[in-house]
Structures are given as structure tokens and as C-alpha cells.
Backbone:
């Protein structure tokens, strides 16, 4: 039975269109909806709206569903629309009338939000873990080969000397800042939407939303119920923006590695096991993995802008448009997590070719100008003197 069922049948085409792929996307939210429903049941029990026996039955039922889901055996049918309906239907068949009480004092709106927040919290913590592993791989390469000198570039032209350590270290620094952004988002989403219901609170029943917040591990509950619905237009795009920032870090490294591993440069060598081949050219070893990571930044950016666009021009309160941002959120997090994992492996396996990291004389032009400055020559004069010398060559 649908959560909104009122005794009439929905047109089949309308049903298919409105459900979309939510019943498939929601597979990853089952355990989080069970956790949120368990917390809500605790608040209902404390408010005297469930008996001890009903609460015990609901708790056992939710744990059973979570266990089935962990084994890949909990099914969400298209006609159930989403995981929330599927879970309540299962509870009702197991617990009888108690299962029909679990939705008391909440709407599917704050139910969806609560499950998403719990999912996002886990995803952000996993993202931080993978950022740390990626940064460690960068530092590992710097520890092994960081003293090797290499040309630094501006405008795709040789500019000044740098080192492998400084070059790869910039990506460790970027990952550290990306992790700080994840910390900020974890603080931002650390507020429970349960109790906002459809966006206007829960009258009469005196359910303690702070209690359910604590039971879910949130430090606070959202006080303004309309804002709880607004957060879906704010928090999800913010998380997608973090994914875009992570992918920008990886895009830059992938772009460098494609360039620096070219035979014409040869600073870096990709192990053979990281490269694919050509179907026609026997000699080819292609950096496909780097090209895909490079391209996936743009795919994630597109998903972020899709969510931002969906959020605009909507009146306050829940609007079904928000459903369309769920897929982009999952896609962004999946891509960022997978890309961090693969670039950690790639970075740890990079080989530095010291003999190819040749420092041409012109790379020391700025240093030469500064030596003249130290001897008393004004910088602008020193600049012109050195520039003229290299023009003559």
C-alpha cells in the first residue's frame, strides 16, 4: 500500500512517471531509513503513542529489515514507489497494527530528509577517509622522490625550477583543504529534520523531536519546520559542490600526469598495469584511467548544476521537483569516492624518471636576476639585463 493511498487507483502512466527510478535509487537508503524509523519509534514510545510491546515489535522488525538489506534480500517494488513505503509495508505485515502506527507524527518529506542526512553523514566520512589516503599517497611519492628537480610551467612553457616534492605536494595540500570543506558540511548537516513533518510541524501529539535527533546521533534538531524542507535545496547542492572540488583536485593531477607521462616529457612513467592498449596500434599504452578521471570532473560539475537549477524558483515548502536531485547527489558521491580510490592507487605506483627531468638554463633566469639585485642592481634593470641575454641566445 502507498503511504498516501486514499482508496483510488492512480493512472498507470502517471504512476510510472512520478515514481521514476526512485525505487531503484532508494536501495542505498534502506538501512538509513530503518535507523531513522527506529529513532522515531523511540520518540513515539516516549510520547506514549506506542506501548512497550509495540515498540519492541517495531524495533525487531526494523532490525530484521536492515539485516535483510545487508544481505541484498530486501526488495522494493515499483508500485511501492520508494524504500519508505516498502519498509512500512513490511513492518505492517510483521507487526500488524503497530506497523501502521510508525508513521505517526511524520511525513514522507521529513522521513526522506532524515534518511538522506544519515546517508550523507556516512558518505562524507568515507570521503574524508579516502581524501586522507590520497594525500598519504602524494606524501609517499614526495618522500621517495621529492628531491628530484623538475621544470615548473606557466602558460605551458618552462618557467622556473621546482621539485617532484613541491609538485605532488600541492595535491596533498588541496586534499587537506577538501577535507576541511567536508568537515564544514558535516557540521552543517548535523541537524535532524524529523519533526518538521510536511514542513509545518506536528500539532497536538507532543513528540520530542530533540529526542529522535539524539537517537540518530545529531547534535540538534532543525527548529523551523519550513527550513527543514528548504535544506534539501541547500545541503545537497553543497555536498555536490564538495564533490566538484574533490574532482577538480583530481582533474588537475590527471591532466599533469597525462602530460608529464608523454614520451615528449617523460618526467613520470605509468606502470604498464595502469595502461590500456589500442585495438589497432600494437605499440600503444594509453592513460585511459587518467583521461576518465579528468573527464569525470565535468560530469560531476554537470550534476551539481543540475541540482542547483532544480532548486531555483521553487516556492517555500516541499515540491516534488526535489526528487530529481537524488540521482545527481548519489552520482556525485559515487564518482568522487571511486575517483579518489583509483587516483590513490595510481599515485602510489608512479615512477619518476630523474634523467628526463632536465632543467634547461632559461629556468634559472629569475634566479640570475635576483643575484644581480643582491649585488645592488634595481630589479627592473636586472630583469631587462637577463631578458636581453636570453633573447640573444
Residues:
Amino acid at each position: 500500500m502507498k503511504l498516501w493511498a486514499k482508496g483510488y487507483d492512480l493512472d498507470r502512466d502517471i504512476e510510472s512517471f512520478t515514481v521514476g527510478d526512485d525505487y531503484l535509487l532508494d536501495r542505498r537508503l534502506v538501512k538509513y531509513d530503518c535507523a531513522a524509523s527506529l529513532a522515531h519509534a523511540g520518540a513515539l514510545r516516549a510520547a506514549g503513542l506506542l506501548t512497550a510491546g509495540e515498540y519492541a515489535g517495531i524495533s525487531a522488525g526494523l532490525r530484521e529489515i536492515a539485516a535483510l538489506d545487508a544481505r541484498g534480500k530486501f526488495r522494493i517494488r515499483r508500485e511501492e514507489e520508494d524504500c519508505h513505503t516498502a519498509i512500512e509495508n513490511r513492518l505492517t505485515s510483521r507487526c500488524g497494527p503497530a506497523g501502521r502506527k510508525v508513521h505517526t507524527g511524520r511525513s514522507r518529506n521529513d522521513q526522506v530528509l532524515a534518511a538522506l542526512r544519515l546517508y550523507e553523514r556516512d558518505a562524507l566520512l568515507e570521503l574524508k577517509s579516502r581524501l586522507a589516503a590520497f594525500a598519504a599517497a602524494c606524501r609517499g611519492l614526495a618522500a621517495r622522490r621529492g628531491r628530484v628537480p623538475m621544470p615548473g610551467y606557466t602558460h605551458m612553457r618552462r618557467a622556473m625550477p621546482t621539485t617532484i616534492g613541491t609538485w605532488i605536494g600541492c595535491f596533498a595540500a588541496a586534499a587537506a583543504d577538501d577535507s576541511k570543506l567536508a568537515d564544514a558540511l558535516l557540521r552543517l548537516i548535523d541537524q535532524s529534520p524529523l519533526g518538521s513533518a510536511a514542513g509545518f510541524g506536528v500539532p497536538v501529539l507532543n513528540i520530542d523531536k530533540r529526542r529522535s535527533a539524539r537517537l540518530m546521533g545529531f547534535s540538534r534538531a532543525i527548529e523551523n519546520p519550513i527550513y527543514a524542507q528548504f535544506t534539501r535545496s541547500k545541503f545537497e547542492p553543497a555536498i555536490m559542490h564538495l564533490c566538484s572540488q574533490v574532482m577538480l583536485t583530481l582533474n588537475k593531477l590527471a591532466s599533469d600526469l597525462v602530460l608529464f607521462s608523454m614520451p615528449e616529457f617523460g618526467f613520470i612513467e605509468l606502470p604498464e598495469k595502469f595502461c590500456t592498449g589500442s585495438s589497432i596500434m600494437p605499440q600503444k599504452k594509453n592513460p585511459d584511467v587518467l583521461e576518465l578521471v579528468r573527464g569525470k570532473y565535468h560530469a560531476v560539475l554537470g550534476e551539481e548544476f543540475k541540482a542547483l537549477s532544480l532548486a531555483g524558483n521553487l516556492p517555500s515548502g516541499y515540491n516534488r521537483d526535489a526528487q530529481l536531485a537524488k540521482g545527481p547527489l548519489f552520482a556525485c558521491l559515487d564518482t568522487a569516492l571511486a575517483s579518489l580510490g583509483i587516483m590513490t592507487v595510481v599515485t602510489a605506483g608512479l615512477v619518476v624518471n630523474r634523467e628526463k627531468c632536465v632543467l634547461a638554463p632559461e629556468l634559472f633566469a629569475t634566479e640570475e636576476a635576483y643575484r644581480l639585485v643582491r649585488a645592488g642592481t634595481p630589479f627592473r634593470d636586472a630583469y631587462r639585463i637577463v631578458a636581453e641575454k636570453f633573447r640573444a641566445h
About this structure: Residues 361-392 form one domain. The first strand starts at residue 149 and ends at 154. The chain has 14 helices and four strands. The first helix runs from residue 12 to 19.
